[in-house]
Amino acid sequence: MAVLCKNAMLLSTLLLGLLSVSCVAELQRFEHAAKPNGSLSFLVVGDWGRRGLYNQSEVALQMGIIGEKLDADFIISTGDNFYENGLTGAHDPAFHQSFTDIYTAPSLQKQWYSVLGNHDYRGNVEAQLSPILRNMDSKWLCLRSFILNVGPEMVDFFFVDTTPFVDKYFEDPEGQVYDWKGILPRKNYLKNLLMDVESALRESSAKWKIVVGHHTIKSAGEHGNTDELILHLLPTLQAYDVDLYINGHDHCLEHISSSESPIQFLTSGGGSKAWRGVVNWWNPKEMKFYHDGQGFMSVQVTQTEVDVKFYDVFGNVLHQWSTSKQLSSAM
């Protein structure tokens, strides 16, 4: 009898252990093919969803023109997809008024890969994540955090849900109500997310690694640096040789390099309302470009090169940056 009880307790312990492991789910992965010649091009826009106002429609027009010239493979949204307070539900007309009815150019009818911003968390988060929206407009895809592989082994994108990192949304929300369903307990959520991101970066064998989040890590704009990301996320990005960190949040276009690592910090948050008039001093050796206005970004990638361009609301190229890596020789 004692042996049976002991075995039952052992089995129970093993089952609990398996259950605890399965609760830490890997990030969902998506695959996107490169062009037949092995290249990739995509556009990046953030902080846009204002029913066409504040030059959102004008930015969308230029995105369509540049997207056609580059034969863009997909579009990345850096969050704050629907102002001011996200979506009220999956059938909120703002989805069509700020997305489907605005980004109408043929070149923009590609897959959109989107993250959530802090304004999105003020609404019904599950609505933006819902397959109902994807059924209404197949180009829409928004998840909290996920991975996009373009290959074979050319580019890995790591989309990270940054809003739950920021203390003030929990400690001093300034009268705003945030939808934290699926986030609480916050400490566990962030711990598991950081573990998943580190594991994915560690296992990546891609030539280029790009991380996308809504919040800035480094910025001279109104919001400035996000201290919580510098503390918790940046060390992981540095440890696993991330090439680009792409974000929105500050309503500007911006490129900052780092003396601490090769990471380039790229802000594309000019999808609609901008012109904040706030530019904080930054070391000129690191500040490569800052535009306090509307616009978007394009990125072209091959196995050996990355080319980044920033465009204003008229489609003019304001800043261009390129880097290269040697093609790995076969062993």
Give a structural overview.
Helices cover 27% and strands 25% of the residues. The longest helix has 21 residues, at 2-22. The protein is globular and about 50 Å long. The strands form two sheets. An eight-stranded mixed beta sheet has the order 1-6-7-8-9-11-10-12, with helices on one face. Strands 5-4-3-2-13-14-15 form a seven-stranded mixed beta sheet. It has 331 residues and is α/β, with parallel strands linked by helices. The chain has helices spanning 2-22, 56-70, 94-100, 125-129, 131-136, 168-171, 186-203, 227-232, 234-239, and strands spanning 28-33, 40-45, 74-77, 111-114, 140-142, 146-151, 155-160, 208-213, 244-247, 253-256, 264-268, 287-291, 295-301, 305-312, 317-324.
Describe the structure in brief:
The chain is of the alpha/beta class and 331 residues long. The chain is 27% helix and 25% strand.
